[in-house]
Amino acid sequence: MYFQRLRDLREDKDINQTQVAKMLFTSQTVYSRYERGALTIPVEHLLILADFYEVSTDYILGRTNKREMNI
To answer: pTM for the full model?
Structure first.
């Protein structure tokens, strides 16, 4: 599964893959594979990214078009 939203969210924050990878304690190569869908993103990383971008995990996964988190 290709996660265009991960790329879009990252670019909206004007940060590069290396910066996101450091936040996740992983490599730029691994993060790039998440964005391309070549590697399944671990739940822990998905949750960190959802919190960082202030969106729901469902939004990142393409299950909804609503960006806001349900609180």
So the answer is: 0.89
